[in-house]
Amino acid sequence: MSDANPATHLFWLFAVAAGFAPGARAFAPSVVSTPGTEPAVSIYDLGTRSSVEASPPEASSDLPEASERRLLMAEFQPKLTFAPLQGEKSEIPDHPSLNERFYFGVGAFAATSSTEAALESSTGIGASVDFENTLGLDSNAITPQGLARWRFSERWRLEFEYFKLDRSATKTIDGDITWGDDTFPDGTQVHSTFDISVLRLSCGYSFFKTKDKEVGVALGFHLTDVNVGLSSTGISGDDGKMLAPLPVISVYGQFALTDVWAISSRFDAFRMEYDPFQGHIYSLGLDALCNPWRNFGFGIGYRALDIGGSVDGGDWEGELRSTYTGPIVFATLFF
What we know:
mainly beta, Lipocalin, 2 domains, ten-stranded antiparallel barrel, three-stranded antiparallel β-sheet, 58% strand
């Protein structure tokens, strides 16, 4: 049997397996065979109690024996394939916020503010005034805000953000207020203004940058312009003005969830002492960006700005503590 072709081997395997199957036929090789031929097989049918003669299949003459063996082995060789899970995308997200050169945004910042300030007099610093509770300034206001970014290389970028909030109120005060060299007596109707604008400009480097992720650091400054005034009938009042370019160090990151959605974050910090400003500035930005179209989209986010310290010199000598927090919605343009 060592010279038998593969077709004969398969026939014998099939015959043996069939003999042990329920309701199958019993079989045995015939005692009669001729030289040069394969022995016939006597198959005993268990159902009819009779035997029949059968011959093994003839080998194919179309293919050589080695080719037939390779085809048979290939037929039963397992084939492994790997496919992504249902709904899974194998490609890396490509969101425009991480890959387009220019980005512009314009929106509305719903700011909740808290402001305390004091203006020094010739005899010494006055008491700190709460502009929302004492003078009646609205603590909730909506102000426009602009954003821009320029990626001038793969890892380097310039970023810009600006908002301006002007508020004024008139209120009859409870208790005396000293503002600079003027004192407003209890029961006086005081008109107050508090205008602030903040320009943030930074240059950043992404030390980790891929198509869908980036993390980096930046150096920049917050240019803060503050104009504060109190007045009443018969008292013109002193104005406090401050223009402070405050340097900041920033960390930022962005992550593309899909081709449409991405998230970004930024944190700026400054705390030092130099003439004429002593104090701190902290700024936080969190955004979720949605781009149904490649070049146009919208975003929702959160902003927080905390400025505090003392000023000695110029048009303001005194103290200031002002915070602005709240959500922001904006439209975006990428190209």
